[in-house]
């Protein structure tokens, strides 16, 4: 290898490493949290999201709920193990820019009206479709606590 090649090899390696290091940081800028079981995931997810924002406050986070996951966004809902009310935690995260979405297919299947949910809840036609769109079209990282 000539002298120029020996000098450029570390430079190319450094550029490649910087590019690889930047990729996860970009993916972390937008995250979708998938909740389909409030009893198992609710409180843990809310704590994870709080911790996530404490470390990376500029992260855009969307929480998509469907099936039994929507239960955490029902007015007056509590964690079944600790009795902790979800609503104040949800409101605090909403104030930090987190979006909470409820699957309307689940609402229809369970005969739930929009007025049964906390005011912080938004609604999406299909939770599963929304998660797929966020991942494939908007490049959100996926977390299922």
What are the SSEs and their pairings?
Elements: H1 3-27, E1 30-37, H2 38-55, E2 60-68, H3 86-95, E3 99-103, H4 104-109, E4 121-124, H5 127-136, E5 141-143
Parallel strand pairs: 1-2, 1-5, 2-3, 3-4
Helix pairs in contact: 2-3
Output the CATH class name: Alpha Beta
**CATH hierarchy: architecture:** 3-Layer(aba) Sandwich
Q: Might you state the CATH topology name?
A: Hypothetical Protein Ychn, Chain: A
Main sheet characteristics: 5 strands, parallel
Order of helices and strands: HEHEHEHEHE
How many strands?
5
What does this structure look like?
Helix 2 (38-55) runs parallel beside helix 3 (86-95). This protein is of the alpha/beta class and 145 residues long. Strand 3, helix 4 (104-109) and strand 4 form a beta-alpha-beta unit. The chain has five helices and five strands; from the N terminus they run H-E-H-E-H-E-H-E-H-E. The chain is globular, with a radius of gyration of 20 Å. It has a single domain (28-143), classed as Hypothetical Protein Ychn, Chain: A (3-Layer(aba) Sandwich), CATH 3.40.1260. The longest helix has 25 residues, at 3-27. It has a five-stranded parallel sheet, sandwiched between helices.
């Amino acid at each position: 290898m000539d002298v120029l090649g020996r000098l450029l090899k570390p430079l190319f390696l450094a550029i490649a490493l910087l590019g690889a290091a930047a990729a996860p940081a970009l993916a972390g800028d937008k995250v979708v949290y998938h909740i389909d079981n409030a009893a198992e995931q609710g409180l843990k997810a809310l704590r994870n999201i709080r911790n996530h924002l404490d470390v990376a406050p500029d992260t855009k986070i969307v929480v998509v709920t469907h099936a039994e996951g929507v239960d955490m966004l029902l007015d007056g809902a509590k964690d079944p193990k600790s009795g902790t009310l979800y609503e104040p935690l949800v409101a605090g995260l909403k104030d930090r820019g987190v979006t909470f979405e409820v699957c309307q297919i689940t609402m229809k299947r369970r005969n739930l009206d929009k007025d049964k949910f906390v005011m912080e809840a938004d609604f999406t036609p299909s939770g599963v479709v929304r998660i797929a769109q966020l991942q494939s079209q908007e490049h959100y990282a996926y977390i299922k606590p």
